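[job 4471] stage=fold_predict status=RUNNING
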Amino acid sequence: MAKATLKTQATTKSVTAFLKTVDAGRRADCEALAEMMGKATGAPAVMWGTAIVGFGKFPYKYATGREGDWFQVGFSPRKTSLTLYMMGGRERRPKFLAKLGKHKVAGSCLHIKSLADVDRKVLAAMIADAVKA
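[job 4471] inference complete, writing structure tokens
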């Protein structure tokens, strides 16, 4: 089966330029997340669509045969929260979430208001675990 064409694609837009558009209060958290995710993946930050910063490569294939490429981990500074995307390690995620701090989970997304609300060491370990999986 052919690879799926996703609406959100990797772009050549500058991650640095994008982060400069994020309000100052949230920008420091985004820069810290970028550092954590870059360290965990060893990959450069890449813009996906207009507002997602992704790291690494995650080829996937569904049981139906549909396949595509996505990023291993990423984040987006949404209006109400920082949304984190982690493709691997879902079965082990509850052990990290129990120690993380204030957060919400919706599907594969982790939502946090601010890095001040969570334990950064636990978050870094969860990101690293997602990359290893």
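[job 4471] summary: The mean pLDDT is 92.
[job 4471] exit 0
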